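Hi R.,

As promised on Friday, here is the backbone we talked about, encoded as structure tokens. Could you run it through your design pipeline when you get a chance and send me back a sequence?
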């Protein structure tokens, strides 16, 4: 069946409807089984000990509150009963569901996990269903799929699980289109002195057009696609750039591990002539240490070959290793990532007509920061910043007497911030800006590059 499925509110409404249908089925069974267990335990306690404030009364009150969807009020009563070893097995599922419905997901998870191991089939299957919902909200999409798949075989909850699987299933085709007018304060990357003396010579506006197609042929996290972008300069047309990227990736998202491997092949055209071709690959893994605190490590490799002779010494390999600490995973209201990067530019040695001064092999290292904050259900603010200290291999000799023995040393800094607003289900508007600064002990390589942009993007899912 072909069709477009909007993001956001419609999906959420359907999921809530399925949850409510599931809860209605559960309440019919839980009320009967829990009350019977409570009455039995009341008789046993009455024979074994003198009268006291019985936990069974708390359990009966909690069941009534649960049936009325007053989950927050039921939680204290269920926690009190949960401390009773004789009744713990009766309330672990109810308490886990109440905590889930009040969005206390971290406390709900171990309770639902415990309930999913119950010898009682209906308790086990209901717990698997709600674990699927919980993992989905935590962004652990692969674990959510696994739990919902287990619940799909249930005679009681199978229909609800199947509906949820269909609603959250990733589309087989993902299409996005973006249009963005931009301002670039230093298209040519003129050195700081030249740029300050005549900034308009390097300043220009442009229109960025981008289209992408993603294909997910299977239910697990393998995907491939193509991204085509074109930046048309308004005045400095020799710098208009066409970039085509074909990619293949695999990802796994769990509550504890987030793993991704990604490869891409790129071709760039500058003003109608081929600029470069490159291949890059990246592998990354994030491990949750505690609560929302995680540690991640990644390695990236790129080989780029320039077709223009003047850029020959920029061809070669780049290796990048990265270690970072993070707090939060989407869709949390805020995520913060702080890390450190070690980078090696293992580029080609210059050949004629280039000279030894065009040797750009270098080591670089430095910290980075990334933040994303959901300011509103439809509004997100993001910030990224990077500092690199880069030391070049080439040491001038007699060929440059004034700089003999002094290697090039750069301090590179970049910052980018933007605000995105989602509207209309399929569409997103955004506005932002960036600043790139490179300060070098060789004046010719010092530059500033301010940019600003705004635009609109559309996202569609098919199949």
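Update: got your reply. Pasting your designed sequence below so it's all in one thread:
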């Amino acid at each position: 069946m072909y069709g477009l499925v909007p993001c956001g509110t419609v999906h959420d409404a359907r999921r809530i409807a399925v949850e409510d249908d599931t809860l209605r089925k559960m309440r019919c069974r839980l009320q009967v089984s829990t009350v019977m267990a409570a009455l039995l335990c009341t008789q046993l306690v009455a024979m074994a000990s003198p009268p006291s404030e019985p936990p069974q009364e708390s359990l009966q009150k909690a069941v009534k509150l649960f049936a009325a969807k007053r989950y927050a009020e039921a939680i204290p009563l269920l926690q009190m009963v949960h401390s009773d070893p004789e009744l713990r097995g009766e309330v672990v599922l109810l308490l886990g569901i109440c905590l889930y419905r009040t969005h206390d997901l971290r406390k709900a998870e171990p309770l639902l996990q415990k309930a999913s191991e119950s010898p009682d089939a209906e308790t086990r299957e209901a717990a698997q269903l709600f674990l699927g919902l919980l993992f989905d909200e935590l962004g652990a999409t692969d674990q959510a799929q696994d739990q919902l798949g287990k619940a799909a075989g249930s005679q009681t909850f199978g229909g609800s699980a199947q509906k949820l699987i269909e609603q959250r299933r990733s589309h087989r085709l993902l299409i996005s289109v973006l249009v963005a007018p931009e301002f670039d304060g230093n298209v040519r990357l003129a050195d700081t002195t030249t740029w300050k003396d005549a900034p308009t010579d390097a300043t220009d506006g442009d229109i960025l057009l981008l289209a992408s197609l993603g294909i997910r042929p299977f239910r697990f996290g393998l995907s491939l696609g193509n991204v085509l972008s074109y930046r048309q300069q308004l005045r400095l047309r020799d710098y208009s750039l066409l970039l085509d990227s074909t990619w293949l990736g695999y990802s796994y998202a769990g509550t504890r591990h987030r793993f991704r491997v990604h490869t891409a092949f790129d071709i760039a055209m500058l003003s109608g002539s081929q600029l470069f071709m490159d291949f890059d690959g990246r592998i990354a893994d994030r491990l949750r240490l505690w609560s929302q605190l995680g540690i991640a490590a990644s390695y990236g490799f790129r080989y780029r070959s320039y077709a223009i002779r003047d850029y020959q010494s920029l061809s070669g390999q780049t290796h990048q290793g990265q270690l970072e600490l993070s707090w939060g995973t989407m869709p949390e209201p805020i995520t913060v990532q702080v890390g450190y990067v070690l980078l090696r530019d293992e580029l080609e040695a210059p050949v004629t007509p280039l000279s030894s001064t065009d040797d750009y092999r270098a080591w670089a290292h430095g910290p980075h920061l990334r933040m994303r904050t959901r300011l509103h259900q439809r509004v997100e603010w993001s910030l990224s910043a990077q500092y690199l200290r880069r030391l070049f291999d080439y040491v001038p000799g007699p060929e440059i007497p004034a700089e003999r023995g002094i290697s090039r040393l750069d301090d590179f800094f970049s910052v980018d911030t933007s605000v995105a607003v989602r509207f209309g289900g399929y569409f997103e508007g955004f506005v932002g800006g960036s600043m790139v600064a490179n300060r070098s002990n060789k004046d010719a390589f010092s530059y500033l590059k301010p940019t600003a942009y705004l635009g609109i993007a559309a996202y569609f899912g098919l199949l």
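One thing I noticed while checking it: The CA atoms of residues 82 and 88 lie 5 Å apart.

Thanks again,
M.
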